[in-house]
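One-letter codes give the sequence; backbone shape is given numerically. An example follows:

. . .
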Amino acid sequence: MKVGFIGLGIMGRPMSKNLLKAGYDLTVFDFNKNAVEDVVAAGAKAAKSGKEVGENVDVLITMLPNSPHVKSALFDKNGAAEGLKRGTVVIDMSSINPVESQNIAKKLDEIGIEFLDAPVSGGEPKAIDGTISVMVGGKEEIFDKYYDLMKSMAGSVVRVGDVGAGNTTKLANQMIVALNIAALSEAFVLCEKANVDPQLVFEAIKGGLAGSTVMNAKAPMMINRNFEPGFRIELHIKDLQNALDTSHAINVSLPLTSQVMEMMQALKIDGRETKDHSAILNYYEKINNVVVGKK
């Protein structure tokens, strides 16, 4: 199976390397030449355009920031769709608006190309060790055919419905993660103001009902005041905006998601949009005039 990969960013680069480790014949394209050279050094072939990728593969994976980037990579001049043959498949592993996933699928279907929306969760560390979670929307027979390909990059690959269901599931994931981080931030600010050590609070509650994967990942970052990005605030803003846009389109109210979105917007205004989303803590620190963790 010849595989194409467009989008060698924080997630895409390690994911593509895991495909190489699994033995796939891989052709890659990205505007970041350093990223391309890095993956080529691991065994991939470089293409000069999306079209060239499409001409040389059986299946194409895209891993890009948002829907405009996916549509550009596929449908712009020299985009991948110009090179893809009928019967090939696009697996979009970007996190985008599910309505846009459905629109892309329809446009590809017109030229005989199948589509899966397959966003991922887990961040850079899990992309590196191949344990990301993949939530997939699309036809069951296409999912089954490419399950092993996706599993070579992931710890979990689950089909959740038809096209669009993958990104709807990812939006739910991102809402829950954001609200968990906000709740943890709020609790830590309370503890700091009450002169109770957040580190000891974390150790006391992480094994109880409040414990979570989010807490285990983000509490140490908060306490050690390490806000270097695993997942940037600006990307979480993009995901929550997609959640709100989708909710408005189908008449759903998301009051808590809206509130956390405004916190992240305030952090962006404060110049923190490239920090890790654990920096939601900084919002609470600022309005409460307190610093949590190591001083």
Q: What stands out?
A: The longest helix spans residues 165-193.
